[in-house]
Amino acid sequence: MRTAGPSSGSGVVIGWGLVGGRPVVVASHDAAVASGAIGAVFAETVQRAQRIAIDRGHPIVYINDSGGARIHDGIHALHGCGGIFANNVEASRKIPQISLILGPCAGAAAYSPALTDWTIMVKEQGQMFLTGPEIVRAATGEDATADEIGGSGMHTRTSGVAHLEVDDEQAALDAARGILSFLPSHVGGAPALVDPVPARAEAVARLPHVVPDKSSIVFDMHEVLDGVLDDRPRLELSPGHAPSVLTVLAHLDGRPVGIVANQPKARGGILDAKASVKASRFVDFCARYGLPVLTFVDVPGFLPGTVEEGRGVITQGATMLRAYVEAQSPVLTVVVRKAYAEGRRGPRRPARRARRRVPRERRPALPRRRGGHPRRRDRPGGDARPHGAGARRPRPARRGGPRMSATTTATASADIVSNVWKLVTEIGAQVRQGDVLAVLESMKMELPVHAPATGTVAEVLVTEGQIVQEGDPLVVIATADEGPAPV
Question: Which pTM does this prediction carry?
């Protein structure tokens, strides 16, 4: 690693070195100097690193730990921040950019990572927010911690601003190396080829039995990928955000590829606004650097309803379609089981695109009766639901003993608008973490609800046939040995 000369007082150190034998530029904030605040000299130094990377075609890694713009530098600090952002945008068309968040990044310091390709945050250490807890409290009255406003959990699972959450700084550096190992040094550069390695023999042998014959039964798409891709380390990006779609960097016959796949194990593999943004961003990135895009489809369609329409699912879905149409790298779509409604991805293009379908007879995914689920008379041990289509049933009175203390309970909640098809637990039952508590039905998919912790079922808050919304509590589990504690 070579540094670009002394930087005492600027709050940042820049340099360049080799990662996997290829040149990489690094710009690292020095939080020991004015908390890493961005001043005029700081900004000039970072821009110098960016120009080196852009002009020479080297990837750049930003190591971030900054309190934002340096107040004492006034307009000069803001002008410098603008120069950094402009270079971020220029670089995004030419070289890979990776941001590591190792500490708090407030205000202007949060914008540059958002303009880079991938952001990696250290758990319980890295934060990104425009305004900190004190300003939030003064402006709105909301009392929230820095982690609640901009911690790694919130950004990697809820907002999608960050893409990987790691345990420590070394893991963050390793993750950055891992991403770079799949990429060329710059747009149009030579692909990072490796020696081909066959897929694991046991995974290949299991392939014919992974996908259930019944289209409503979920399975783990990772098992399909295991039997297709090279037996090399894979890197899943944004695993906790919009988990119904997988975005994975992997190798196929020694060549780096980007994988987009529905994950039936998570919300039935449904598409929604967040999943569309996640997929389109990944497809655009892979196509920019010449990585072929392999799409494994098992989708019941887009999630219908007022919530998704309010989130702009039409625009986000169209953005995903645009990413596939504009992709200049090879695109291959494999329909693993079903591709209903607008969930079909990889639109028809010239002959260089190929699509393979595994033929199976499947029913339409979307309900045909106006207002909600069609009546189902083929349920094991039951008739049609007694409620009108689309009618939300009044929440029943809580069943069970005394309310649990908040510190001794764990609640299993619905993660999608759905119908409670079956309850498989009852008050007082002993359950282990991961046990199935209930089965929900949405878009004709049977979605098991798993116990979030080991303990005793204290409350069952729903009944079979009830319509539940995303986030509604279903079952409360007492995790303390002494059982229910009165409130």
Answer: 0.79
